[in-house]
């Protein structure tokens, strides 16, 4: 799944009207699994690598896969949930728990939508990757289907959230992000069909 989709879906699933203070831990938890990808892409561009080399070769290199495994670890996310629960009486405990829960949701959403680029979600206990038959982007592995499912979920989650966000700024940011996801879907999925 694309990172902005994770932000919207995790916020819709985890944020409740009684706990808007958990918005930032949820958003940060949704970003953590993809943070190394942004660093990796910046590194690749700084090295002058073409897009094909970045995503077709360097992405699969062992040093980067080891780094990606840390951020995509379900056990580490669950550790955050457990730590947050055990520290729930302290002011920072719930934030840690929501951050961990958001990471786990990100991983669970990635599991059915990654084929060749699947992560090591059981790190540090295993390097096994769940290779899904469906990709969120690769047309050779039902990428159009994966992207359409992702878009549908994002639109439903956005409609749900829009009515629950109290500030105009939050509503505007949600609207802008949703529009960008729709535009990206059109450019990456629908445009190649014409």
Features:
globular; mainly alpha; 8 helices; single chain; 194 residues
What secondary-structure arrangement, pairings included, does this model have?
Layout: H1 3-14, H2 23-46, H3 51-56, H4 62-71, H5 74-86, H6 93-110, H7 143-162, H8 168-190
Helix pairs in contact: 1-2, 1-6, 1-7, 2-4, 2-6, 5-6, 7-8
Note down, in words, how this protein is organized:
The chain is mainly α. It has one domain. Helices cover 65% and strands 0% of the residues. The longest helix is centred in the N-terminal third of the chain and has 24 residues. It is globular and about 45 Å long. The protein starts with a helix and ends with a helix.
User: What is the alpha-carbon Rg in Å?
Assistant: 17 Å
Strand content: under 5%
The strand count comes to 0
Task: For the record, give the distance between the C-alpha atoms at the N and C termini, rounded to a whole number.
Answer: 24 Å
Percentage of residues in helical conformation: 55-70%
| Structural shape | globular
Largest sheet: none
Total helical elements: 8
H/E element sequence: HHHHHHHH
Calculate the mean pLDDT score and round it.
Answer: 89
> Uncertain segments of ≥5 residues (pLDDT<50)?
none
Number of domains: 1
Structural class computed from helices and strand pairing: mainly alpha
């Amino acid at each position: 799944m694309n990172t902005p989709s994770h932000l919207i879906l995790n916020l819709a699933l985890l944020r409740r009207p009684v706990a808007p203070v958990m918005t930032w831990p949820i958003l940060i938890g949704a970003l953590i699994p993809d943070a190394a990808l942004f660093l990796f892409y910046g590194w690749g561009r700084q090295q002058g690598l073409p897009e094909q080399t970045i995503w077709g070769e360097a992405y699969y290199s062992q040093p980067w896969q080891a780094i990606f495994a840390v951020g995509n670890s379900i056990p580490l996310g669950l550790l955050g949930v457990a730590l947050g629960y055990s520290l729930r009486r302290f002011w920072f405990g719930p934030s840690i728990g929501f951050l961990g829960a958001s990471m786990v949701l990100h991983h669970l959403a990635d599991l059915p939508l990654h084929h060749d680029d699947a992560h090591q979600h059981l790190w540090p206990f295993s390097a096994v990757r769940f290779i899904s038959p469906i990709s969120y982007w690769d047309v050779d592995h039902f990428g159009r289907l994966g992207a359409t499912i992702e878009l549908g979920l994002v639109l439903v989650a956005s409609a749900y959230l829009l009515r629950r966000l109290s500030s105009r700024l939050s509503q505007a940011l949600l609207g802008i992000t949703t529009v960008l996801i729709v535009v990206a879907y059109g450019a990456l999925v629908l445009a190649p069909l014409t």
